[in-house]
Design goal:
Chain lengths: 317, 541
């Protein structure tokens, strides 16, 4: 069962074990179902948060809107799938490898496409990143075909107090939470993390305290790509993948970045969680792709009440 | 009103808490050239924008040819015969010069479909009159800044306006072309057109205008012919900063504030001033007693030969716009001040020194090190740090994090901690605010944080870009004592300032830059004659 996105990309609804065609879902549900939905919401929220964090980081520091971000997720998915199925590696070992790979890949993308036009207009940069998106997705499609793929592993279910979570989703949830905590701590408590936040805050002032701003750009793009890659890398644990799966996530990631406040790191994580919840619970209660409408309704509502986003600062004007 | 072609009544424009235009009532006589001068941020461009409908006014009225145009849109005002140009010339860059003129919308819908022969003839006439016919078929992006200014003037002439408002028409234009622009303006004025002109170049104002209005802090300070205006104490105050007794308390300082600055306390929400704003009294003239000589200057430390920052023949600018044209400066022990009117290029010079703006030619050395090509962050490793205008703090980071980032280049944790403590000792007010976001601080506290963050770098030379700008008068002295703190700790300071009178009290060596060139260089005590200072400052020689 697939719910169709506006841009023609699909995310399988059955991944959450519920059919959106179920008529008349009761408003009050079993505690066990409720908790299960909650777990899915946190998982999806964590993945959204990671994708949005990378996106908002690159935007905040470099003022670049990275359209290739969803494609970087796809690279993470296929890296894990290929290393597991093709090379026979343990899938959990392949996740950190994929993240490291994506960091290097991000630095290379920055070196070849963004860095040369860092002073060009934002539209030019946007179009270049869109080109990178097309190249990546097409290359993956040529290499691995557009057919859906899944990991050749058998993962069971874990039951805790009557709530049954497929193991794949549980592990993905653990990875997502860990990654959010590590990213948060890195940005908050290390000198380098502070330098990234400082550069995002005031690029001019950053150079006056001795921050090598071009180098921070490389680091940021690498980290942004690694976060997208990590979000992508956990997806094959519980879902079939295809080369276009990143698009749907990217659209929602844009919503999250604006919802949380452009360039705000905590805003991206909070926004990710909110959209994760709306997505999962909306999918449960609303027919068809009604949840997507719910996402945009919440989005519009927040922007009406606080145009700079939930955790966005006041505009500097 | 009959002899006034343009008149404003109590025109007010605010941006949030900032009162940019504070009840301006100004009458422009038919056929005159009226100059508007005033320091940075005094509200000149805002006045233009409000009069010509680009901003919606927050109070008051504008009359043009006896008609109330307050509520009209900018296009309607332009078609009614009140034209304007912008500080940065903005021709349609993809069109040719002639097409730029023809693009002007003149007579109803028909002009949108077919260009009439009269319109072509008019364009030709303007091209000839302004002597830009030879570049008529060049794309507007390919012509020089001065030619773009002429084109902008020509484009507005297509509407045959009876009054034209010019926002710095000669800024960044080379002297030869500048003379030509002025000739054209005189010629157009003789044809009967009225001009209102904002200019920082005083030689332009003195040679062109019939009357001058001086704006300061959103209000008209005085009006009259150029000589009368420039000898007015209030005008000197507007440009050189208010004369306050540095030993006086806050109330005294405010009490001395002349009426022209009455709105300051409301405008700058800086804690203590807000509570005493009621005590602001209108004393008319500010005190004029020169106190400069009575103030003991900080004696710079002379422990052995200090490294100097030496810049020779600096030429730089933005785009094809030369801002600094062959200036040589060097740092001296203590505080080296760079003064100059608005748009003289002093901030650009400072940014060039620290490496934030690349220079086109010339050389910069710090001690033995060639820093001509190095960036600002590389120069920090050489011991140079810049405090950008308005402090440039990280608003979304806490005060603690701001300070820690000041120590970004320090690898040794204990050094960083020691310096952190030193900074808090120097600025105890920051200690209570360590966990507050930078943006939550008041203007004065932000500047303090900027000083503290710069001290964290452990630099030997501090470059300060107008640290007192935008601060309440009572805080200006604090900023200068913070500057002295840096010197007491053995550093050299290069200080760019608008507050000349106050800054002179702490200066050891002075440079005056006007129109991109050096007008004066020497020890601060050579500059005690204020008349001379004013002339140098205004570039009158």
């Amino acid at each position: 069962m697939f719910a169709t996105f506006a841009i023609g990309q699909t995310v399988p609804v059955e991944l959450f074990g519920f059919s959106s065609e179920t008529a008349a879902v009761p408003l009050f549900i079993d505690l066990s179902i409720g908790l299960q939905l909650l777990a899915f919401a946190i998982l999806l929220g964590g993945i959204y948060g990671l994708v949005a964090l990378g996106l908002t980081m690159i935007f905040g520091v470099m003022d670049v809107i990275n359209f290739a971000h969803g494609a970087l997720m796809v690279v993470g998915m296929y890296a894990v799938w290929w290393m597991t199925n093709g090379l026979g590696l343990n899938p959990f070992l392949t996740i950190p490898i994929a993240v490291a790979l994506l960091f290097v890949f991000g630095v290379l993308i920055h070196l070849t496409t963004i860095a040369p036009i860092i002073d060009a207009s934002q539209e030019n940069q946007l179009i270049v990143t869109f080109g990178v998106l097309l190249i990546i997705v097409s290359t993956i499609e040529i290499a691995f075909s557009a057919d859906p793929q899944s990991l050749d592993i058998d993962l069971g279910s874990v039951g805790i107090a009557g709530i049954y979570l497929p193991e794949g989703q549980l592990y993905a949830l653990v990875f997502a939470i860990l990654a959010v905590i590590v990213s948060w701590a890195f940005l908050q408590y290390t000198q380098l993390g502070r330098a990234i936040r400082g550069t995002a805050d005031n690029r001019d002032a950053a150079q006056y305290v001795g921050i090598n701003v071009p180098r921070i750009d490389y680091l940021t793009f690498g980290l942004g790509a690694a976060l997208a890659g990590l979000a992508g890398a956990v997806i094959p644990l519980f879902q079939q993948i295809n080369p276009h799966l990143g698009d749907a996530y990217l659209i929602n990631a844009f919503v999250i970045v604006v919802l949380g406040g452009l360039g705000s790191f905590p805003g991206a994580l909070l926004g990710g969680m909110i959209i994760g919840f709306v997505h999962v619970f909306g999918q449960f209660y609303l027919p068809g792709s009604g949840y997507q409408i719910a996402i945009f309704c919440i989005f519009i509502l927040v922007l009406l009440l606080k145009p700079s986003g939930l955790l966005g600062g006041d505009s500097n004007e | 009103m009959s002899d006034h072609i343009l008149e404003t009544a109590d025109l007010t424009k605010t941006f949030g808490e900032l009162i940019a235009n504070d009840g301006i009532s100004l009458g422009i006589e038919r056929g005159e050239v009226h100059g508007i001068i005033g320091p940075n941020g005094s509200g000149k461009s805002t006045f233009f924008n409000t009069v010509t409908g680009f901003y919606e006014s927050d109070g008051g009225q504008v009359f043009f040819e006896g008609t109330d145009i307050t509520e009209m849109g900018p296009d309607e005002i332009a078609r009614n015969g009140l034209g304007r140009t912008f500080q940065i010339a903005s021709p349609f860059t993809d069109l040719t010069v002639r097409e730029n003129l023809l693009s002007v919308y003149t007579d109803g819908l028909r002009s949108g479909l077919r260009i009439s022969s009269e319109k072509r003839a008019r364009a030709q006439e303007i091209l000839e009159q302004l002597e830009i016919e030879h570049i008529a078929d060049h794309e507007a992006s390919d012509i020089s800044g001065g030619q773009q200014q002429l084109l902008e003037l020509g484009r507005i002439l297509m509407l045959d306006p009876s009054c034209i408002m010019l926002d710095e028409p000669t800024a960044g234009v080379n002297p030869a072309l500048q003379e030509r622009i002025l000739d054209h303006l005189r010629e157009l004025n003789e044809e009967g057109r009225t001009f209102v002109i904002i200019e920082h170049d005083m030689s332009v104002i003195s040679g062109l205008t019939d009357r001058v209005s001086v704006l300061n802090q959103g209000q008209i300070v005085t009006q009259g012919d150029f000589e009368t205006v420039t000898s007015d104490d209030r005008v000197r105050e507007a440009y050189l900063g208010e004369e306050t007794d540095p030993n006086a308390g806050l109330d005294d300082a405010l009490g001395e504030t002349p009426s022209t600055a009455g709105a300051t306390a409301d405008r700058l929400d800086d804690g203590p001033t807000a509570t005493t704003s009621g005590s602001v009294t209108a004393t008319g003239d500010g005190g004029t007693t020169a106190q400069t000589s009575q103030i003991p200057q900080v004696t710079p430390k002379t422990n052995g030969p200090t490294k100097r920052l030496v810049a020779e023949n600096i030429v730089t600018g933005y785009g094809n716009h030369t801002v600094i044209d062959g200036v040589s400066v060097e740092s001296h022990d203590g505080i080296t001040c760079i003064f100059g009117p608005n748009g003289s290029g002093k901030s650009t010079l400072l940014k060039a020194l620290v490496g934030a703006v690349p220079i086109w030619s010339g050389s910069i050395n710090y001690g033995e090190t060639d820093v001509t090509e190095t960036n600002a962050y590389q120069n920090l490793a050489h011991g140079m740090v810049m405090l950008p205008q308005d402090g440039g703090i990280f608003g979304n980071l806490s005060v603690r994090e701001n300070l820690l980032l000041g120590g970004y280049r320090i690898d040794d944790r204990s050094v960083r901690t020691d310096r952190f403590d030193t900074v808090l000792e120097a600025f105890p007010a920051l200690e209570d605010k360590l966990d507050a976001d930078g943006k939550s601080l008041s203007g004065g506290q932000q500047m303090m944080l900027s000083f503290g963050r710069a001290m964290m770098t452990g630099s030997d030379i501090f470059l300060l870009d107008e640290p007192s700008a935008g601060l309440a008068p009572s805080l200006v002295d604090d900023v200068f004592s913070m500057t002295e703190t840096l010197v007491e700790q053995g550093a050299q300071v290069i200080l760019v300032e608008q507050n000349v009178r106050d800054a002179l009290r702490i200066a050891n060596h002075v440079y005056i830059v006007a129109q991109g060139q050096l007008q004066f260089e020497g020890p601060a005590h050579d500059l005690l004659d204020e008349d001379e200072l004013v002339e140098l400052y205004l570039g009158l020689e």
